[in-house]
Prior knowledge:
Largest interface: A-B, 65 and 44 residues
Distance between the termini of chain A: 57 Å
CATH superfamily of the largest domain in chain A: P-loop containing nucleotide triphosphate hydrolases
Oligomer: heterodimer
Number of strands of chain A: 24
Number of helices of chain B: 13
Largest sheet of chain B: none
Shape of chain A: globular
Radius of gyration of chain A: 24 Å
CATH topology of chain B: ABC transporter involved in vitamin B12 uptake, BtuC
CATH class of the largest domain in chain A: Alpha Beta
Distance between the termini of chain B: 45 Å
Shape of chain B: globular
Number of domains of chain B: 1
Order of helices and strands of chain B: HHHHHHHHHHHHH
Helix content of chain B: 55-70%
CATH topology of the largest domain in chain A: Rossmann fold
Strand content of chain B: under 5%
Structural class of chain A: alpha/beta
Largest sheet of chain A: 6 strands, mixed
Amino acid sequence: MQPTENVLEIRDLVKDFPGVRAVDNVSFDIKRNTVHCLVGENGAGKSTLIKILTGVYDRTSGRILLNGEEYNPRNPRDAKQQGMSTLFQELNVVDQLTVEENLTLGMEDTTFGFTRKTDKINRMVGVLNSIEPSIKPRQLVSSLSVAQKQIVEISRAVAAESDIIIMDEPTAAISESEIARLFNIIKGLREKNVTVIYISHRLDEIFELGDYVTVLRDGKHIETKPVAEIQDRSELIKMMIGKTVFEQYTPREIDCPDTILEVKHLSNHRLNDISFDVSAGEIVGFYGLVGAGKTELARAIYGADNYEGEIVFKGQKLRPSPEKAIAAGIALVPEERRSQGLFTILTIRGNVPVMNMAKISRKGFINDATERKVTSEYVDKLKIATNSVEKEASKLSGGNQQKVVLSKCLFADADLLMLDEPTRGIDVGAKSEIYNLIRQLSREGKTIIIFSSELPEVMNICDSIYLMYDGNLKSTMRNGCDVNSESILHIVTGGE
Amino acid sequence: MDSITTGVSSKEQPNVTTILKESTILQMDRSATLRANIKRFYIYIVLVLIVLVFSLMKLDQVTFFERGHFLSPDSIINLLRSAVPILTLSGAFTLLMISGYIDLSVGSAMSLAAVVFAWLILNGFSFLPAFVITLILGAILGSLNGYLVMKLRITPVIATLVTLSLFKGIALLIVPDGSSAIKGSAEKVMPAWINDYARKDVLLGLPWAFWVAVLVILLLVIVQRKTLLGKYATAIGGNRIAADLSGINAVRIVGLLYVMVGFFAALAGMARASYMSLGDPLSGDGMELDCIIAVLLGGTAFSGGEGSVAKTVVGALIIICVTIGLMTVIPAYWQTMAKGGVLVAAVTLNHLLVREKAKA
């Protein structure tokens, strides 16, 4: 078969959901053996498009040509067999098995139920070796890092002779050094006759990695062009949101420098003797790479994990329980909004007041009218895009879900608001709304602690920046003109 | 005042609905509404259908039982009287399942309560003290389950399977050797008023036990829909991690639900004992299955999070109608199997209608 120039051609693709057209007449081509980036705000239609390509959703109308032939996968397995592999954020490897067993999982050669050593295994191990020689076939997958697991999955896709590997935010959960390694591998995939569809919110990655970029907005196709023809980030951002959004930190004085939170010699299985103070009204940022212990610190302060040491809040020693922390005036916006922050089976109205039900109930009975009123106030205040407070939280986009979680924490009337990765996986527009909200809350006298693995985020809005590495608090600095990102990166990667 | 929203740079929210043609929206809404309505009302339809089928059968030609029409006042009263234990118990059971937990020991707790209640009355206690003591016992049995599951963190199925055996064992121990139940004998006479509670007509031909069950249901419908307990049960069942991080004390809430289930199991057990005028240590057998099926028929997810006490009641009535209906038309040996068959059909139908389509 003569290989076509375009590995994938999408023509007039439409996907309707009840009340929403998620993909609206999208047409573009993906050239063979390139890295093709897909960008857009949340709700732009990226995930829907990917789910159609991988057979999770049926399209409403339109055509897709894979290698010049009609492509209409019935389900993800079918998509895979036709040459469309996906590297999901939730990795599809079995921790308890070895690398080798994982590579052949589901396609073992067997005799009477016993697995046989065959050429297939050797070929797969060969592919893995050519991609990443440091991973040993006999190693247990549980001993691998997230990035190494991704590499195992990529190898499996390459060995299965996939034409296309779709990567959905592969760098979201891995460290900077591993990102570099992963990028080298992705770049090398071109020579292995593999096309990569790469989805990321980190725009820098697109310039480093991409050959082509397609921008989607509100379900529509905005532009597909070579990355080399794009001048800079702001041009890309303009295409994504149709307007420019930029914020810069301006140094400011804290009015009331009373200490509100004192953390003394905090240690647990992931934290090592951490001490610091936070002044009332301050915005503090904890920055570190993934695995530095930020989430663990947030959870310890909140009382969700056990610890040794002492946490004093407003002069009172805290007891380790989220219930007590909330009562004392602390709220946490957790790292994973869907699995830790949101009740997806409940409506917006069910979610917003849940941390402070006392405020909308009397003697254990909930006052529905107050609940509705309070919820619509937050919907207005935080501009949650919905037509009703009765909409199920699961049906909102990521940014709006995060606003619901934020509302929930704000309604708890906390004086100290901790936000763990407040803008992860959220589009640029919603991000800037959340930053403005944080600044506003701080002006109203709330104390904010942000735990983030995005340096620009911390540098844009935090008054103080605390750097973490491997469970230790390495350095503390006031934000301002003398703060430079190079020295920060040096520290959080383990430099002294 | 500088409100929270000022300074937010994105003025236009991406409003996806605007890009849709009106007609498509209407069409989609209509099919979605239809689906939602089917989901909402089909269980009532199932109940009506089952009642209809049994009513249309010519029962006078059936030789096994000399009974009247399925919908005659007598048989309705009979049906409702037999429904008392499951009506009493399944509401609290629903709340527990909404929170994502389960109690397999309810049948044994019921039996134990029946035995204890009968023993107390046989040994000279008057009604009220025996009633209160048995209720307290039920709450204690429930709190034992709650302790094992919530404090010691034993898997609910295992913990309550163990207590199922334990409660039943105690009930069997209380019954004297050579007897199958706590009942009147030559030496000790069971007071005749023991069956006043579950048999004596107080209103519309129905006894106290029935009206208490109705009250319990109303109470629990309100608890589920209007109170913090109901809301927190949903939150815990819907997302346990988020519930913990939202400061909801799951140990306390679910522990309380276990106590409630034990309490209402005792109430159901006493209704059974009063109805039979004896304390049968096997009288609650199979109750856990009836409760689970009633709850599932009512649309509560086995994994928790969603559910409705009111619909469980409809599910419970379906089970009772099937049981009683079959009793009138088929030989006894076939009844258990036939009941199983009908319930498998009902649960399958429920699953097919209620589940969300994977492909939207």
